[in-house]
Amino acid sequence: MSTRDTVLAAAQRLLTTDPTASMAQIATAAGVGRATVHRHFASREDLLHEIGVRSLERWAESQRAAGLAEVVAAGDADRIRACLEVLIDAFVVDADEIGIALTDPTVLNAPDLRERADALFTQEVTLYAAAQDAGVLRADVPARWLGHSLYGLLIAVRDALVSGDIARRDAEALVRSTFLEGGAAR
Amino acid sequence: MSTRDTVLAAAQRLLTTDPTASMAQIATAAGVGRATVHRHFASREDLLHEIGVRSLERWAESQRAAGLAEVVAAGDADRIRACLEVLIDAFVVDADEIGIALTDPTVLNAPDLRERADALFTQEVTLYAAAQDAGVLRADVPARWLGHSLYGLLIAVRDALVSGDIARRDAEALVRSTFLEGGAAR
DNA sequence: CTCACATGAGACAGCGGTGTCTCAAGTTGG
DNA sequence: CCAACTTGAGACACCGCTGTCTCATGTGAG
């Protein structure tokens, strides 16, 4: 792994727990000198931006891997269900890695990242809308609300894992099941 | 409203949108001088701590107003359902007000606040557990997970409101319905 | 071996935020 | 009217972080 990637990974990890971590702390966490960090990233903002870009690429890759576009075009209920499942699992796996990108002001306020994130969210909402049409997801709530609620569950699963309230191996199933069936008894 | 309360309210509002807002920005938002802020709060940490205390009091008050303790003791399914509803509505109303207290590192890392928040969460989980026993909430997931997932939905509703994806008047119903029934079609 | 290159360590100036202080200008209550 | 109190504005020193620079060290390729 290149020094650049080492720094990037350490920053992603550290900033998730402490968004205010300084460049010096990031350098220490990466096991490199502070000057070296600046050699690879002109400024703190640059570093955050790069993390944002990578996180969005990861997100886009998840959508691609789940075959989102084709599934939406097909509109088949079973395929939609499977696609949702794949997508949720990918999210849970990436939750802590792309966490900062979803919450840090520096990342959120970068216009280009904001735009790409909106595009990805909107892209994803097409799946929810298709799911509503196919009778997979309930149609009495806005499709975009379904997107937000899944995002909220990702925050929840991260917290639950940190506080040790759920087992890592159960995480995907809990999110899937809660997103679809909710918490009420049957 | 006392100057102190004015500052507190402005800080709560401002910090929700920008957690890194400086004391000067807070002072401006409150319409007072920077020195005045420091007259009422010895340090930035003090101010944050006070906000945390108030948010936790609000939370505790919501539990009291919903009669949580008595409902848990009674264990009656209908009363549990009603209690949940009242609690969720109160959360949605307070979501943006106590938002910072749930995310800001300064608040989260204060040991005394951390302890009180844990106590309140645990208290609330007794309701979820009682709801599971009474057949109101599903019993095949950890009670604490239900707590986390509701918390996640609060984050979601705040985001959805900010981005204009849902109407304010629909917020409570969406959270209630999504928490209980999930997103799958029936 | 030698050169090119990346690195660690440290020094440095600049910047913005913090917390303290003072002083002049209201405001309130007796 | 007057005294006590509160405020706004500004000045100030302090601190930590940022970004730049230099220099010595180490390492790999030729």
TrEMBL record, chains A, B:
Name of protein: Transcriptional regulator, TetR family
Gene3D superfamilies xrefs: Tetracycline Repressor, domain 2
Lineage: Bacteria, Bacillati, Actinomycetota, Actinomycetes, Propionibacteriales
InterPro entries found in the cross-reference section: Homeodomain-like_sf (IPR009057), HTH-type_TetR-like_transc_reg (IPR050109), HTH_TetR (IPR001647)
SUPFAM superfamilies from the UniProt entry: Homeodomain-like
Keyword line: DNA-binding, Transcription, Transcription regulation
Highest taxon above the source species: Bacteria
A GO MF term: transcription cis-regulatory region binding
PROSITE patterns, per database record: HTH_TETR_2 (PS50977)
Organism, as annotated: Nocardioides simplex
